[in-house]
Protein backbone atom coordinates (compact mmCIF):
# COMPACT_ATOMS: atom_id res chain seq x y z
CA UNK A 1 0.00 0.00 0.00
CA UNK A 2 1.30 3.45 -0.89
CA UNK A 3 1.39 5.70 2.16
CA UNK A 4 -0.53 8.95 2.29
CA UNK A 5 2.75 10.87 2.53
CA UNK A 6 4.10 9.18 -0.59
CA UNK A 7 0.87 9.86 -2.45
CA UNK A 8 1.17 13.56 -1.58
CA UNK A 9 4.74 13.62 -2.88
CA UNK A 10 3.66 11.88 -6.09
CA UNK A 11 0.86 14.38 -6.63
CA UNK A 12 3.17 17.33 -6.04
CA UNK A 13 5.81 15.90 -8.37
CA UNK A 14 3.24 15.50 -11.15
CA UNK A 15 2.85 19.30 -11.28
CA UNK A 16 6.51 19.69 -12.16
CA UNK A 17 6.80 17.24 -15.05
CA UNK A 18 7.18 18.25 -18.67
CA UNK A 19 4.02 16.37 -19.62
CA UNK A 20 1.77 17.90 -16.96
CA UNK A 21 -1.07 16.38 -14.95
CA UNK A 22 -4.40 15.41 -16.52
CA UNK A 23 -6.80 15.05 -13.61
CA UNK A 24 -10.33 13.62 -13.97
CA UNK A 25 -12.86 14.45 -11.28
CA UNK A 26 -14.80 11.71 -9.49
CA UNK A 27 -18.01 11.96 -7.48
CA UNK A 28 -18.32 8.43 -6.05
CA UNK A 29 -16.39 5.18 -5.75
CA UNK A 30 -17.55 3.86 -9.12
CA UNK A 31 -16.33 6.90 -11.07
CA UNK A 32 -13.08 6.94 -9.07
CA UNK A 33 -12.40 3.26 -9.74
CA UNK A 34 -13.14 3.68 -13.45
CA UNK A 35 -10.75 6.63 -13.74
CA UNK A 36 -8.08 4.63 -11.94
CA UNK A 37 -8.66 1.58 -14.16
CA UNK A 38 -8.31 3.79 -17.25
CA UNK A 39 -4.75 4.57 -16.17
CA UNK A 40 -4.86 8.00 -14.52
CA UNK A 41 -2.08 8.63 -12.00
CA UNK A 42 -4.29 10.74 -9.71
CA UNK A 43 -7.87 11.93 -9.44
CA UNK A 44 -9.67 14.93 -8.04
CA UNK A 45 -13.14 15.08 -6.60
CA UNK A 46 -15.86 17.38 -7.92
CA UNK A 47 -17.81 19.32 -5.31
CA UNK A 48 -20.73 19.82 -7.70
CA UNK A 49 -20.79 16.14 -8.64
CA UNK A 50 -20.71 14.96 -5.03
CA UNK A 51 -23.35 17.51 -4.01
CA UNK A 52 -25.73 16.54 -6.83
CA UNK A 53 -25.22 12.82 -6.19
CA UNK A 54 -26.11 13.34 -2.53
CA UNK A 55 -29.16 15.50 -3.26
CA UNK A 56 -27.78 19.02 -2.75
CA UNK A 57 -27.03 22.06 -4.86
CA UNK A 58 -23.42 23.05 -5.40
CA UNK A 59 -21.86 25.87 -3.38
CA UNK A 60 -21.23 24.30 0.05
CA UNK A 61 -24.91 23.32 0.35
CA UNK A 62 -23.86 19.78 1.20
CA UNK A 63 -22.77 19.67 4.86
CA UNK A 64 -19.03 19.34 5.35
CA UNK A 65 -19.46 16.04 7.20
CA UNK A 66 -21.32 14.48 4.28
CA UNK A 67 -18.84 15.82 1.72
CA UNK A 68 -15.94 14.43 3.75
CA UNK A 69 -17.62 11.04 4.06
CA UNK A 70 -17.75 10.72 0.28
CA UNK A 71 -14.14 11.92 -0.06
CA UNK A 72 -13.07 9.29 2.48
CA UNK A 73 -14.85 6.52 0.59
CA UNK A 74 -13.25 7.62 -2.69
CA UNK A 75 -9.77 7.84 -1.15
CA UNK A 76 -10.18 4.36 0.34
CA UNK A 77 -11.44 2.90 -2.95
CA UNK A 78 -8.36 3.75 -5.03
CA UNK A 79 -4.60 3.37 -4.72
CA UNK A 80 -3.73 6.62 -6.50
CA UNK A 81 -3.55 10.12 -4.95
CA UNK A 82 -6.83 11.97 -4.40
CA UNK A 83 -7.17 15.75 -4.38
CA UNK A 84 -10.33 16.95 -2.65
CA UNK A 85 -12.47 19.82 -3.87
CA UNK A 86 -13.39 21.57 -0.63
CA UNK A 87 -14.85 24.66 -2.34
CA UNK A 88 -14.08 27.72 -0.18
CA UNK A 89 -13.14 25.70 2.89
CA UNK A 90 -16.49 25.69 4.69
CA UNK A 91 -16.20 28.97 6.54
CA UNK A 92 -14.64 32.40 6.09
CA UNK A 93 -12.03 32.32 8.86
CA UNK A 94 -8.59 30.71 8.60
CA UNK A 95 -9.60 28.52 11.55
CA UNK A 96 -12.56 27.21 9.52
CA UNK A 97 -10.24 26.29 6.67
CA UNK A 98 -7.80 24.64 9.07
CA UNK A 99 -10.58 22.50 10.55
CA UNK A 100 -11.68 21.40 7.09
CA UNK A 101 -8.10 20.58 6.08
CA UNK A 102 -7.66 18.55 9.26
CA UNK A 103 -10.69 16.45 8.34
CA UNK A 104 -9.67 16.15 4.68
CA UNK A 105 -6.32 14.68 5.72
CA UNK A 106 -8.08 12.27 8.07
CA UNK A 107 -10.25 11.25 5.11
CA UNK A 108 -7.15 10.16 3.19
CA UNK A 109 -6.87 12.89 0.57
CA UNK A 110 -3.47 14.41 -0.20
CA UNK A 111 -4.44 17.62 -1.97
CA UNK A 112 -7.18 20.24 -1.98
CA UNK A 113 -8.76 22.88 -4.19
CA UNK A 114 -9.39 26.01 -2.15
CA UNK A 115 -11.54 28.74 -3.73
CA UNK A 116 -11.46 32.49 -3.12
CA UNK A 117 -15.08 33.13 -4.10
CA UNK A 118 -17.91 34.08 -1.78
CA UNK A 119 -20.92 32.77 -3.64
CA UNK A 120 -20.82 33.81 -7.29
CA UNK A 121 -20.62 37.57 -6.89
CA UNK A 122 -17.55 38.42 -4.83
CA UNK A 123 -14.14 37.23 -3.75
CA UNK A 124 -12.23 37.21 -0.51
CA UNK A 125 -9.68 40.01 -0.51
CA UNK A 126 -6.12 38.98 -1.23
CA UNK A 127 -5.07 39.45 2.44
CA UNK A 128 -8.05 37.35 3.57
CA UNK A 129 -7.40 34.55 1.11
CA UNK A 130 -3.68 34.42 1.76
CA UNK A 131 -4.36 33.95 5.48
CA UNK A 132 -6.75 31.14 4.64
CA UNK A 133 -4.12 29.48 2.45
CA UNK A 134 -1.51 29.88 5.19
CA UNK A 135 -3.89 28.14 7.59
CA UNK A 136 -4.28 25.25 5.16
CA UNK A 137 -0.53 24.96 4.75
CA UNK A 138 0.05 25.06 8.51
CA UNK A 139 -2.50 22.30 9.08
CA UNK A 140 -0.78 20.11 6.51
CA UNK A 141 2.55 20.71 8.22
CA UNK A 142 1.05 19.83 11.61
CA UNK A 143 -0.06 16.53 10.12
CA UNK A 144 3.40 15.95 8.64
CA UNK A 145 1.93 15.85 5.15
CA UNK A 146 3.15 17.78 2.08
CA UNK A 147 -0.45 18.67 1.24
CA UNK A 148 -0.84 19.86 -2.36
CA UNK A 149 -2.79 23.12 -2.26
CA UNK A 150 -4.39 24.13 -5.56
CA UNK A 151 -5.47 27.73 -4.94
CA UNK A 152 -8.46 28.59 -7.10
CA UNK A 153 -9.44 32.09 -8.12
CA UNK A 154 -12.85 32.69 -9.67
CA UNK A 155 -12.13 36.02 -11.33
CA UNK A 156 -12.89 34.60 -14.77
CA UNK A 157 -15.36 31.85 -13.91
CA UNK A 158 -17.82 34.36 -12.41
CA UNK A 159 -16.56 37.43 -14.32
CA UNK A 160 -15.83 39.28 -11.10
CA UNK A 161 -14.31 42.75 -11.28
CA UNK A 162 -13.71 45.04 -14.22
CA UNK A 163 -12.91 43.23 -17.45
CA UNK A 164 -10.06 45.65 -18.21
CA UNK A 165 -8.26 44.78 -14.97
CA UNK A 166 -9.31 41.14 -14.59
CA UNK A 167 -6.06 39.70 -15.95
CA UNK A 168 -3.91 41.86 -13.70
CA UNK A 169 -6.06 41.00 -10.68
CA UNK A 170 -5.78 37.30 -11.50
CA UNK A 171 -2.00 37.50 -11.83
CA UNK A 172 -1.74 39.43 -8.57
CA UNK A 173 -3.85 36.85 -6.80
CA UNK A 174 -1.92 33.95 -8.29
CA UNK A 175 1.41 35.36 -7.13
CA UNK A 176 0.10 36.13 -3.64
CA UNK A 177 -1.46 32.68 -3.26
CA UNK A 178 1.80 30.98 -4.21
CA UNK A 179 3.72 33.14 -1.75
CA UNK A 180 1.22 32.19 0.95
CA UNK A 181 1.97 28.50 0.47
CA UNK A 182 -0.10 27.26 -2.47
CA UNK A 183 1.54 24.78 -4.83
CA UNK A 184 -0.45 25.70 -7.92
CA UNK A 185 -3.01 28.23 -9.11
CA UNK A 186 -6.36 27.19 -10.57
CA UNK A 187 -8.09 29.63 -12.95
CA UNK A 188 -11.34 28.05 -14.18
CA UNK A 189 -13.37 29.82 -16.83
CA UNK A 190 -10.54 30.50 -19.30
CA UNK A 191 -10.27 28.88 -22.71
CA UNK A 192 -8.70 31.41 -25.06
CA UNK A 193 -5.16 30.21 -25.90
CA UNK A 194 -3.72 33.75 -25.88
CA UNK A 195 -5.13 34.42 -22.43
CA UNK A 196 -3.89 31.09 -21.12
CA UNK A 197 -0.40 31.91 -22.39
CA UNK A 198 -0.52 35.24 -20.54
CA UNK A 199 -1.52 33.45 -17.37
CA UNK A 200 1.31 30.94 -17.80
CA UNK A 201 3.81 33.76 -18.25
CA UNK A 202 2.48 35.88 -15.40
CA UNK A 203 1.87 33.31 -12.68
CA UNK A 204 5.18 32.11 -11.16
CA UNK A 205 3.98 28.58 -10.52
CA UNK A 206 1.99 25.70 -12.03
CA UNK A 207 -1.28 26.75 -13.70
CA UNK A 208 -4.42 24.61 -13.59
CA UNK A 209 -7.26 25.16 -16.06
CA UNK A 210 -10.64 23.46 -16.29
CA UNK A 211 -11.70 21.96 -19.60
CA UNK A 212 -14.75 20.67 -21.38
CA UNK A 213 -16.09 19.95 -24.86
CA UNK A 214 -14.88 22.39 -27.51
CA UNK A 215 -11.75 23.46 -25.65
CA UNK A 216 -8.14 22.74 -26.55
CA UNK A 217 -6.99 19.19 -25.92
CA UNK A 218 -4.89 18.48 -22.86
CA UNK A 219 -1.70 17.90 -24.91
CA UNK A 220 -2.14 21.30 -26.58
CA UNK A 221 -2.71 22.98 -23.22
CA UNK A 222 0.43 21.37 -21.85
CA UNK A 223 2.35 22.74 -24.82
CA UNK A 224 1.12 26.22 -23.86
CA UNK A 225 2.71 25.71 -20.45
CA UNK A 226 -0.33 24.62 -18.42
CA UNK A 227 0.72 22.09 -15.77
CA UNK A 228 -2.63 20.75 -14.57
CA UNK A 229 -5.82 20.10 -16.53
CA UNK A 230 -9.05 19.04 -14.81
CA UNK A 231 -12.63 18.49 -15.94
CA UNK A 232 -14.59 19.63 -12.88
CA UNK A 233 -18.18 18.38 -12.89
CA UNK A 234 -18.33 17.80 -16.66
CA UNK A 235 -18.07 14.00 -16.54
CA UNK A 236 -20.74 13.79 -13.86
CA UNK A 237 -23.04 16.08 -15.85
CA UNK A 238 -22.49 13.94 -18.95
CA UNK A 239 -23.49 10.92 -16.88
CA UNK A 240 -26.63 12.72 -15.76
CA UNK A 241 -27.36 13.49 -19.41
CA UNK A 242 -27.13 9.80 -20.29
CA UNK A 243 -29.43 8.83 -17.40
CA UNK A 244 -31.90 11.50 -18.53
CA UNK A 245 -31.96 10.02 -22.04
CA UNK A 246 -32.46 6.54 -20.60
CA UNK A 247 -35.25 7.81 -18.35
CA UNK A 248 -37.08 9.63 -21.14
CA UNK A 249 -36.90 6.69 -23.54
CA UNK A 250 -38.01 4.24 -20.87
CA UNK A 251 -40.92 6.40 -19.72
CA UNK A 252 -42.17 7.60 -23.12
CA UNK A 253 -41.51 4.59 -25.32
CA UNK A 254 -41.04 1.75 -22.88
CA UNK A 255 -37.87 0.76 -24.73
CA UNK A 256 -34.28 0.37 -23.54
CA UNK A 257 -31.92 1.17 -26.40
CA UNK A 258 -30.24 4.13 -24.68
CA UNK A 259 -28.92 1.67 -22.11
CA UNK A 260 -26.89 0.09 -24.89
CA UNK A 261 -25.29 3.36 -26.02
CA UNK A 262 -22.55 3.22 -23.35
CA UNK A 263 -22.66 -0.27 -21.86
CA UNK A 264 -20.33 -1.50 -19.14
CA UNK A 265 -20.08 -5.24 -18.65
CA UNK A 266 -21.37 -6.58 -15.32
CA UNK A 267 -18.44 -8.94 -14.93
CA UNK A 268 -16.04 -6.03 -15.46
CA UNK A 269 -17.85 -4.06 -12.75
CA UNK A 270 -17.70 -7.08 -10.43
CA UNK A 271 -13.96 -7.37 -11.04
CA UNK A 272 -13.47 -3.62 -10.55
CA UNK A 273 -14.73 -3.89 -6.99
CA UNK A 274 -13.07 -7.18 -6.08
CA UNK A 275 -10.96 -6.56 -2.97
CA UNK A 276 -7.23 -6.78 -3.55
CA UNK A 277 -5.64 -9.88 -2.04
CA UNK A 278 -2.37 -9.88 -0.14
CA UNK A 279 0.30 -12.53 -0.54
Descriptive keywords:
279 residues, alpha/beta, TIM Barrel, nine-stranded parallel beta sheet, two-stranded antiparallel ribbon, 11 helices, 11 strands, 48% helix, 13% strand
Short description:
It contains 11 helices and 11 strands.
How would you describe the overall organization of this protein?
It holds the Pfam family PEP_mutase. This is Isocitrate lyase/phosphoenolpyruvate mutase family protein. GO terms for molecular function: lyase activity. This protein is of the alpha/beta class and 279 residues long. It has a single domain (4-233), classed as TIM Barrel (Alpha-Beta Barrel), CATH 3.20.20.60. The protein is built from 11 helices and 11 strands. Strands 1-11-10-9-8-5-4-3-2 form a 9-stranded parallel beta sheet. A two-stranded antiparallel ribbon has the order 6-7. Helix 8 (193-202) links the parallel strand 9 (184-186) and strand 10. It is globular and about 55 Å long. The relative contact order is 0.12.
Amino acid sequence: MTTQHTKAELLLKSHKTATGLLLPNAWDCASAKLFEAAGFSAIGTTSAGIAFAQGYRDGEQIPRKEMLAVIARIAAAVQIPVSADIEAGYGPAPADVAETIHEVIKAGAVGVNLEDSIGMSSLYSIPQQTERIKAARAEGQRAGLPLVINARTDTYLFSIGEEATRLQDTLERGKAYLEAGADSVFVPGVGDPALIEELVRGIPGPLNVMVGPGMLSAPKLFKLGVKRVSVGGAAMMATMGLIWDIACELYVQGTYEQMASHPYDFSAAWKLFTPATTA
